[in-house]
Amino acid sequence: MIAFIHTLLKFSVLCVCIFRAGLVLAADAIPGEELCIQAIDRIVFSGNRVTKPQVLLRELDQQVNEPCSIDLIVDSTQSIMDLGLFSTVLADLATIDGQLQLQFTVTEKLYFLAIPRFSRTSDAELRAGAQLRFDNFLGRLHQMRITSETRKEDDGDGPGGFVHSLDYNIPRFFGSDYGLAFELATDRRKLNLALNGTEFGTAQSETQTLGLLATRWTRGSRGVQGLRYFFGFRYRDRTIRVLNGEAGPYVGGDDIAAIVGVENKQLHQDLFRRRGTVVGGSLSFANSSTGSDFSYTRADLYGAAYFPLPTGIRNINVQGRLGLSDGAAFGENSYSIGGGELLRGMQKGQTSGDVMALVNVEYLHALFDYPQWRWVLFGDVGNVYRRDDIDLIKLRVRGGVGLRWKLLALSNTDLRVDVAWDANREKAQAYVSSNLTF
Question: Which CATH number fits domain 33-108: 3.40.640.10, 3.40.50.170, 3.10.20.310, 3.40.190.10?
Answer without folding.
Answer: 3.10.20.310
